[in-house]
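Good day; I would like, with your permission, to put a structural problem before you. I would ask you to consider whether the tokens describe a fold that such a sequence might reasonably adopt. The full record is reproduced below for your convenience:
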Amino acid sequence: MDCASCAQRVTRALTSVPGVASASVDVAAANALVRWQPSTTPAPDALVAAVTAAGYTATVARIGAEPSIRLRIGGMDCANCARKVTTALTGVAGVDSATVDLATGSADVRWKPGQSGDLSGLVEAVAGAGYTATLEGPGAAATAAPPITNPWKPALLLGVPVTVLLWIGDWVLHLGMDRGFQWAAFLLASPVQFWVGGRFYRGAWRQARVGQSNMDTLVALGSSAAFGFSLWGLLTGYHGHLYFMEAASILTLISAGHWLEARMSTRAGTALKALLELAPTTARRLEAGSGAEEVVPVARLVPGDPIVIRPGDRIPVDAWVRSGESAVDESMLTGESMPVEKSPGSRLFSGTVNQNGRLVAEVNAIGESTALAHIIAAVQRAQSSRAQVQRLADQVSSVFVPVVVLIALATGAWWGFGYDSAAAIHGRLASWLWESHIPANPAAAAFAMVAAVLIVACPCAMGLATPAALMAGVNAAARRGILIRDAVALEKSGRVTDIVFDKTGTLTVGRPTVVASLDLRPESHRQPPLERLAASLAGPSQHPLSRALARHSGDGGPTGVSGWREIRGSGLESALPGSDTTTYRLGSGAWLEGMGIPLSAAAPFAASQTASGASVVFLAADHELIGAIALRDALKPNARSVVERLEHSGFRVHLLTGDRRETALAVARELGLDPEAVASDVRPEQKADVLQRRQASGSRIAFVGDGLNDGPALAQADLGIAVTQATDVAKEAADILLLQSDLAAIPQALDLAQATLRVIRQNLFWAFFYNAAAIPLAATGLLSPVLCAAAMGLSDVIVIGNALRLNRR
């Protein structure tokens, strides 16, 4: 390969191979990275043949892991099953995240970059959790799975009518002791016991085979105890109440609870599903030469391809605008309702919608390299993470079922062999709480109480407490353009006491402008103009003030600087054309004073400008000051109101900046901050040290920044928040990433994160409280098996319903 066109020909050859999702060719490195469609078996020989046919040579250097694969999961019945599968998959080495969809019975597993995928390890991990996993066919993950009807609906279609008939016969018509009705109840309850209950029996058996137990175990044992005792009584002529109605009610009510749970879980995950459906599958590629538009699959696009985006089209990939002007709706990614104007040079993002103009754009990123793919990956990673508090719940859940079985056996023995004492305690409690009927026969009482204890216990509520809230909170945040890294970030947000803002680009608009200048050179020596001279020094630098000077000069001034170097956090120095012996220095006053250059001639100018909030840079020729330039970066319109809102919420707000003290204090006055809350003259490498000193005094700090040099500070802070357009370094170090340009997203993000954490704690409290209260009540006969079934089903619904409140914040 000798040129970019060679690379494009090789790319087209590679993407023409069946199963290839994308190919990225690097001319300089003379290599190509090929990504296969999920679940496709790599075919390196086909790649080599395609490249050879295009007139080039290729050898396979390494076959790595697919970025993601889709597995078909068997045996999942509820959201807690999905959680267990997720935990099993994310425990496999090399897995970055796993998203399990209960409705479709599938799991999308994403590997960490550079990690080799171990499919057998995934299958074994799922099997170890008591479920089955098989690899779906080629390309399965590339297309959306068809919607599947709620799997609990058929169970309700049978269970509800039967249960209602049994309720009417037993409670309304009082036929419970009639032998004919008891036989009818047996015939009606049997299909419910073995068909509706079959799902629970299969789940319990799968867990038993791997030496585990779960809620299915409790339901299967409890309903079997009620049904088995009733069948024994029917066949032996027992004259007492039989529990066919209770057995059917247990299975029907718990199935109803799972049906509601599945519906609510689907609602909790709507934001992620919406993100997955944003990117279209085809694009209009502009053919070279003819200018004709060809509709092609997005998988066949390569970086550099020209594409056409018509009004109303959803943008298929990340791209740069070549020609045309339009407004683009980016609300689905950033949460901002106002369309963004696009013109040549503007960046377009996959999944956003072109509104009113035709655009011709050049493909910049495809597949998993797009901004949309990164957002989806972030949301999936957050949803599959676990908070520290959830680990305690998981430890309790792991021993919960065996403990409940032991309690149920002890309860049965107590009622069977110590009926009088059990009945006496029941009577005393009933006088304080409520009256409830208990069987007069010790054996019947024992079976009834065993069934009640087994049914009322609910490990699912504990297991779902964190995942349900996390899913709802992360999705609610994603809809608002807020990406939460993981559950640990939520826990961090709950401990924050202080918020430290980096000034430039965070509180300010990030585009400083020149507001005044002072030229100290004699009139006869003022060529080139001071600002053009400064621009020539600033041109190669990426510092915001340097870029502002270069923009202000327009043509950039003299070119051909030699010996140019940038002293980080201090300034620039270089020689200019025609001045072999003169070294020009542009930078901070402290830096120049440290080199022995007096600044007294510019002191009045600097004092007046810094008092108004401007930053002043000084320009020296060798060891003589020749001028000063004032630049000002305006605060964002709502910066003060955001600071006031945060302070009203109880946070202490601080300002961190490299500006001189006078400039920093002027900005602080505009924001309404006390001088004690300002840290000025802070060099980039000192930011983390400043935060560390505050943390040593007991503060729990959230740092808000966006720049390349904010990475260490974001990592040092207890909670790192990166704002829109943040550099990759800042994004990697941040716990929360804001896609909006509006500062109001910061209090929104903190509020939502803390609300999610509160819901997690509420759910865990409810789960523990429910089980701690319900099991003793069931053991003492104050809750019948039917009420226990209803309570157990509702406990899951309460946990998920509480989590869904986050969608309304």
Observations:
- The radius of gyration is 34 Å.
- The CA atoms of residues 462 and 767 lie 5 Å apart.
- Confidence is low (pLDDT under 50) at residues 62-66, 137-148, 726-730.
